[in-house]
Amino acid sequence: MASISARRLAKELREIQSEGCPVGITLLEANDFSRWLFTIEVMGESLYQGEVYDLQFRFDAQYPISSPAVQFVVTGGKQSPIHPHVYSNGHICASILGNEWSPVLSVIAVCVTLQSMLASCKVRPTDNDRYVRNAPENPKKTLFHYDDDT
Amino acid sequence: MGNSSSSGRGHHDESVDYGSLVPQGVYTGPRDWNQAIVSQLIVGRRLAPFYRPLEEYEDSWDDDQILAARKELPDLDSTDSVTRIEAAPSAAAHASSYRSKRPGSLKEPARPEAQVYRGAVECPICFLYYPPNINHSRCCDQAICTECFVQIKRAEPTTTHLVSEPAACPYCVQDNFGVVYAPPPWRAGLGSEGSNPFWSDTQRSSEPTAPPTHKRRQKSFGADSPEVVTTVDQIRPDWEAKLEAIRAAVARRANRRIIMRQVGDRLIPVGVTSGRVHALSPEEAAAAASAAESNGSRRGRRRQGNQNGPFEQFMGMAGQDLEELMLMEAMRLSLLDHEEHQRKEAEEKKKQQSTAPSIGESGTSSTEAVGPSETQSRPGPGPSTLETRSSLQASTSSILSSSPSSKRSISPAPKHTKVGSQDSLAPGRKSWSISRSRTPPPPTNPVPNLPVSEENQTAWRNRTTGPPAFSTLSAALTSTSTAAAFLGAASSSEQRSSRSVTPEPGSALLVTSSVPANSSIPTITVANNDTESGITTTRAPSAISTKPTSQDSESGAGIGFGSYGPLPSSPESDMDMSYEHSMGSLDSTTKMDGQVNSGAAAGSAFLDEHSR
């Protein structure tokens, strides 16, 4: 039998396929239960108008208890959005992907959150270079310091 | 059906209200909760039993459909999982009538195993369906199955995050997650015998026809309300022990000292002491022992036979040892590298010059004041580097001067002879004298981890049991600044090197590796070279907790793990440690923003995206 991760992802996938993704989000690839790819686009007027980004989810066997590793794809000609919470290596600094992850969240919920996150200013994080140079391959291994800038 | 007996046994030995006492395999990770306590809570109807979940559920289903939808789950405890689902309907029905032997269930037309699923609810976390008598979060009244409930726990403390925060509700993020459980009005299985007055009256009516429906309650339960089962305090009573284990590991690490040897113009890390064995003063030891005793008994009572704790502690210690070994190896390589470098340099010098005491010139006036042993000064090649001790003042000075902000104050005190220095330096006296109190024997083997020979032990004992060689300690303190400069911990060296004394030449200096979150007093100890593998040379922190305390508490990370960086031969440990170090400073509650100089992880500029 499948692990909880596969089991739940199967259900999420079924829901995505039956109900479709929210506007601006499309499922690009979900061949297995370890890595999914979405495209994400900010709809309406924004600094990111017309730009489509690839968002990669990686799941471990303990999903949804443990959070997925989510990052923008920066290979194959793809780039990460220019955003204070997004690094040029695709890593995303968002608390819901770290210490505020909750098993109640779903893949689509994360997509929608990130989509709404993109609607903000167009500045690279100041410590982008330093972070990217030393960052672990898996963004989950970074312990971000989350500032509340709401 | 060959295996149905075992499945049946499971049912009548271990079932509560047609659910199980053990998880049904929804999650495959380690069962790190206290299963005995969970079972107890289930039998006591304080937590929903582990029901086999349904993959889907429709209200229109009949019993067979329900039972067929019960997902086949791996039975981690036995091997009958394959036949179990086929066997379940009839065998379980049979088992139930066999089990209860009660009039109510003997000729039950509707199978209670299926009936309990009437009105099944979906757990919002695992997306599986469970009987409506499911747990609800105490705070926001959301359903959560027991499988998911036992997965939710405090974030494990790490060496850089020494607090164990209570688990938050996955739904509303309120702290101290807990659930309440409203059991069905009937009882079956364990705990049902003679204890339920409703059994004979209500079973037939309530069970098949009136599945309990959860009425949304208006109030939330407090975390300490008696109905509430709290994850951390009740099903994982060992969280405290885990936290203590991590804290102990960090304390060990904080107590661990890098053993530095001053060789020529450099301080060479030659080893690291084990932080585990360190000399406590009798009072400290007594206090620690009694504390451990009281902790132990308290925890022991509450743990109730948990077996994980000691094992995990052991694992932690093993990891610690490995880390120490790796550090030692890195240092050994570093030393070898340095000796090679020294040898080459010495050869160069021999060629180039024959008269000028070049080393002394590079230093300061203190060089001239060097005592009789000055005459021994010569650049020591390789293994015999200890013989270069008299050049140390100069070299130390040059090291210090290389750290721009260090306020140097080379002690003008006259050089002591061996006897004189010891006489003049009473314990506790804050005089910063030149310490030439001891002439260490040249080691025959510079490689750390020398077995402590009897002779060396004696030498060391003699040294420490005499009038406490405060001069050597002060020298070591000074050398901390030197070491800081040497190690390249730029920010900390500024704070540390406000005082400088000539370090004792040739001695091994133990530099405290202070871990940020640890508040213990950083210590610096002086050790004999030959006993530097070091456990025995570690002195109690209290012996020298004077000025450096404030310095170190300011600088926090000081010569912490992040500062191990420059060890030339250990790039990997460098990266790991500085990464850890930065995480620690980010994480720790102490304010240490300025300390993050390794740049391995995010600074304080990292921003948080709030979705709410």
TrEMBL record, chain A:
Pfam families: UQ_con. Keywords: Ubl conjugation pathway. Transmembrane segments: none annotated. Coiled coil: none annotated. It comes from Hebeloma cylindrosporum. This is UBC core domain-containing protein. SMART domains: UBCc (SM00212). InterPro entries: Ub_conjugating_enzyme, UBC, UBQ-conjugating_enzyme/RWD. Residues 4-150 form the UBC core domain. It comes from the Eukaryota. Signal peptide: none annotated.
From TrEMBL, chain B:
It comes from Hebeloma cylindrosporum. Residues 193-208, 354-378, 454-465, 510-554, 585-598 have a biased composition (Polar residues). GO terms for cellular component: cytoplasm. Residues 439-449 have a biased composition (Pro residues). Residues 283-297, 388-414, 487-500 have a biased composition (Low complexity). The lineage of its organism: Eukaryota, Fungi, Dikarya, Basidiomycota, Agaricomycotina. It comes from the Eukaryota. This is RING-type domain-containing protein. Belongs to the SIP5 family.
